Every structure is written in C-alpha cells, then in structure tokens.
Amino acid sequence: MIENVVSVSGGKDSTATYLKALERGLPFRAVFADTGNEHEWTYDFVRSLAARTGGPEVIWVKADFTARLAKKREYIASHWAREGISASTIETALSLLHPTGNPFLDLCLWKTRFPSAKARFCTDELKIVPIFEQVQRPLLAAGASMVSWQGVRADESLARADLPRFQRIDPVPYSMPADARHKGANWKAFVYRPLISWSARDVFAFHKRHGLPWNPLYDHGMSRVGCLPCVMCKKGELRSIAQRFPDHIDKIEQWEAVVSQVSKRGNSTFFNVCDDPVTSEGWDKPDYDWSLSRVGIRAHVEWSKTSRGGRQYDAFLDAAENFGTSCSEWGACE
Ligand code: SF4
C-alpha cells in the first residue's frame, strides 16, 4: 500500500503541492507542524484549507517537550551546583523549566538557548520529528510505502537546485537516535517534489487557477511564510515584521528574557551574536556587554532600520538563501 503525505506550512509552495495532490485525485494526508512561532494568519490559512479546496483536513502536529524538560530539571538539580552555578540561578532555572505548551519556547527552554543558522535544531525538533512520529511512523510501521510530497523548487536556492523530483530516502530522520533509525531501516520512504521545476510565478498562478487566495502574509511584505520571525530572517524582513507585526517582536523579547533566565550565563538571544558583524565585535572580550538591550531582538530591530550609515550588513544571514541542512531537503521551512 502507498500512503501519500503532503507537508503543509501555510506557505505558497506547500499549498500548491496540496493543490497538486488534489488535482491528481489520489488519496492523501496533509500535515502541518505547529512551531508555536507562526503568524495567526498562517494558522487561519491552514485551518481553512480543506474547506476552501474540498481537500482533506490538515492533520495538526506539535512537538511536546514535557519529558525532556523534566529530565533537564533533574540534570540541573544534580549537576549545576557542582559546576559552580549560583544557587539563585539554579532556583530560577528550575522554576522556569516547565512546559508552556508553546513548542518553540519549550524547545528553547529545554536547550537553554535559541537555534541559529549553525545550530538549526528547530527544523528537526519542531517539524521533521513531530511529523515523522505522529503521522509517518505509524504508516511505515503498518507496512505502507510512504511518499512525502514536498513543495520545494529548484530556483529557490543552490542547495535545492539539484534535488531530484523523486527520490528514495532514509525513512527515519537523521536527527533521531541510532536505534530508531535501525528499527526503520527496511521501511520504504520516498520524496516527491512536484514543483521542482516551477517558478514562484507558476506557484501564484496555480493558486489563481484553483481560485484559492494565497496566505495574506505575501501581500503584507513577507517574502516567506514560517516562523515569524525565523532565526535566519534577513534584515529587510525583520524591518517589515517590526513595522507590520510589532506584537511578534514583543513575543520574541519576552522569550529572550525567559530563556536568558534558564541559561547558565544569564543571556540568550534570538539572533546569534557571533553571526552578527556588528554585535560580534569584541564578543570574546571579558568586558563585552551581553545585556539584551544591546544584543537582543530590539537592538536588531533598530539596526534593521539602518542602511549604510548604520554599518549596513544586509546579508547578515543571506546564507539562509542557500542553507544546506535537512530543512532544504524536506522543504520543511520556506
Ligand atoms: S522557519 Fe526558521 S526558526 Fe522556524 S523552524 Fe524553520 S529554520 Fe527554524
């Protein structure tokens, strides 16, 4: 038996993939991984997709860090004092390391840091693994061959340029423990990328042909749909988010304050200080000012308003265009 699973993010490419599956007339499941850091319009868009298209309801999955946070508390209680961490820091961390129900925040609490371009554990932990555990694994374990439909286009980036339209893949995500990968070694899983040769224009035209308005975020200055903001967000996008959706900046500011309190050094920023040409200056010196007012999201928002006079570095995370991690292969993050 073949089971088709379409990953839906609320973005234009995964929506076109859902429409493509619908056109084919094959039975399929659609799944959305809620990171807890999406715009409310994206949630509304995904919730309404089935009713607006006549397609299948989208299965909603969420990562749950309850057990891992409990282990983290145990670890901190038994190890941090021996590592010289102050009693008040330990007490604060133990009081805050409880699940909030928001997957993104809970992940950062568990890791006691935010993800970054170089440590992009968010895609695996918030998208790939929950989709695998909650939807794909049961199908594979029941003996089905699983075809994962992914809305990836070759012209999006160099990393995606050479991806094949159809490909057999390891059924269990690389980030899972070796014994889980071993157990699933004989399962059959494939990736199908029906949009691989499409342009963005094709994708929007396809929405029109189906009479489906795209996610309204595209009409409000956003070039991509996903976490708002994404840790790999570029300067112009950050500026647009701050202007149009300031409550999302407030959210990150609150998260920075909480995650900082569970971190050993008392500081954790949404954007990686060391990746950043302005804030990274002197970061390895003992007198470096790590305060959130200097290196936190607000400082980045202020910088995002600058141009050359503000020591422009528009490409501070342009590497995002060409990222080569599992994100690009799975099309999990637009
Ligand atoms: S959209 Fe960005 S922050 Fe969100 S999971 Fe993907 S890479 Fe991580």
UniProtKB/TrEMBL annotation:
Pfam families noted in UniProt: PAPS_reduct
Record-annotated Phosphoadenosine phosphosulphate reductase domain positions: 4-231
Protein name listed in UniProt: Phosphoadenosine phosphosulfate reductase family protein
Coiled-coil boundaries: none
Spans traversing the lipid bilayer: none
Organism of provenance: Phyllobacterium leguminum
Superkingdom as given in the UniProt entry: Bacteria
GO molecular function: catalytic activity
